[in-house]
Fold this protein.
Amino acid sequence: MTAMKQTILRTDQLQAFYVLDMQGAQKIVKAVNNVEMRIYENEIYGIAGESGCGKTTLLKTLFNDIVPPLRLVGGKIYYRIGSEEVDVTTLSPEEKRKLRMEYISYIPQGSMSVFNPVLKLKETYEDFVRSHVSGQSREAIFELAYKQILTLGLPRNILEVYPHQLSGGMRQRVTIALASLLQPRIMIGDEPTTALDVVVQRGVIQMLKDIQQNLQNTIILVTHDMGVHANIADRIGIMYAGKIVEEGTTGQIFSRPQHPYTRFLIDSLPRFGDKNMRSSVPGSPPSLADLPTGCPFHPRCPHAQDICTRQMPDFSHIDENHKVACWFVGEGHHGQVA
Amino acid sequence: MAFLKRYLIPRLIQYVLVVWLGITVVFLIPRLTPNDPVMAMIGMIRARGSTLEPGSMDGIIADLTEMYGLQGSWLDQYWAFWGRLFRGDFGVSFFQFPARVSDLIANAMPWTLGLLLTTTAISWVVGNIIGGLAGYYTRKGWSRTLDAIAMVVRPLPYYIFAFALLLLLAGFMRWFPITGGASLGAIPSFTWAYIKDVLWHAFLPALSLVVLGGAVNFQIMKLLVQNVNAESFVQYAKLGGVTEGRIVRKYVIRNALLPQITGLALSLGQIFSGALITEIVYGYPGLGMLLYNSIVRADYNLIMGITIFSIVGITTAILIVDLAYPLFDPRVRYY
Ligand SMILES: Nc1ncnc2c1ncn2[C@@H]1O[C@H](COP(=O)(O)OP(=O)(O)O)[C@@H](O)[C@H]1O
Ligand SMILES: [Mg+2]
């Protein structure tokens, strides 16, 4: 590594739980449980994990969109805005609103109907832009939008239509274009390629890469598809039951996965020329409302020992980028750089 | 244009067919009932105690038969019926003999239109705006309060509510007149005094209709908005930091209103059958009373006249909604 990378987003022992009132009894879903992250400028950070492990909730929390029943139970979220680090959990609703689109933007899931069906796309564009940039004429807003549309290689008339007139892939490209329009420092995507077919998926991934190259900003991308991560991410965090259990560069995660869960995820990827069905992770993920003691993966782990059922391991650091929370990695060095 | 050929023309043909069919049924029904209106009329004249000279009987029967459009075969009658219809002639009323049905309807129509157009419009606009805001801000105190009020008002039987208003504000407080569309002896004219008199008489009936109609629209709209609010395009706009005013107006209320537009058109179409209970409670001289009396007295021509207005009113309203709907919802296209 040459120059020290600048941190743009950082969390500190983040805990965000759904607190549900079930006829008097409280049910607590520990969807984000002690997550400590440091995300850098100018990188694509991937978050992977099975469905239901809390990826969407983690993104919502990082996006600072914490509304009931989700509650910030512990920890803090810091954005580096300009040269200052800001604890964004203490901002007012209006301050939070202003950061969106301009500083941090959101790319929704590909299958969702995210555009107002009764507005032409350019009207949606206008609403999104006007909510952030005041004093712009309609023409100026549209000129900005068209310039970007052309740069991204999208058809010129794409904003003249209603959302239902576009294919799913095109719609997804427009959401990405819109998310990057005001040149935010961070873009967050929740399964933006899921529900698209493979060819379209490739185009969308390329578009995300191009935008990141152009803006030199940060993209945090959630998908359960390890193939997508292999294609786009610089670093990957593996999430299991509300926790990050392993983090490393994409090369490290794919060539030297350490956590047994990560290994299962990598092994379940189809490989070229391999006609066998790939094994998936055995068993099923735990309920986040009723977590097992110790390491939450122990009921499914082939290597589980007594200690795994009693205590959650700290991270061992294999090198400055690669860390893993497993009792059997970096034995005796937990919490220390190797 | 594909729209003309593939949608508009078939739709207009359908419209004409429905109207024709409806009116034909209106023509047939009284003729299929066993009562002979001519004999019923003569029976009534007799019952009043007037003696009829034996010789004039045949003449009277012939006159009545002609006046009611009942001479000749059904086919002849049917032709004549349409001929008269196109001239705006619905024949004479059997029981308010010899008043013409068209005159009776023309007298009642302005009262009904004036009252119901206004109240339907006000309760739609006000109910939807307040219901829309209450649905968006469900957690606010004022929203819960309005919801509680609507919950009490909605299930009240209309006649009890209307009667209570009458008793309290007209009977007890004496702020409003007990009955009628205008003061007795007031001469219709475009003077402020007369208009004031009409508005004063219309206030209680209008209030009763607006409060109950508004409560209905309020509750429906509140539910619609709560559903739309959970849609992903609203969530997405919030994540995009779109200002709340824009989200409420253009994203939530505008989409929630779509089904309400159809509802509005249907209630406008139904205006032509009047508002019977309102008119009974407040002695209001509208189409509802007229229709009611015509049914009670088996006044076929009058029933037919009002029913035809109703049929045309409702089918036209539906036609207009169908044609105008794509303006509100771009997903609906007819070509
Ligand atoms: N609005 C909500 N209310 C209650 N529980 C929720 C809500 N959203 C998600 N959850 C629960 O939180 C857990 C994590 O969900 P999510 O973050 O959506 O996972 P992922 O995106 O990885 O599939 C799941 O157990 C889910 O049932
Ligand atoms: Mg998810």
Notes: Chain A touches chain B at residues 63, 65, 97-102, 105-106, 108, 112-120, 123, 127-128, 130-132, 162, 164, 175, 178 (CB under 8 Å). The mean pLDDT of chain A is 90.
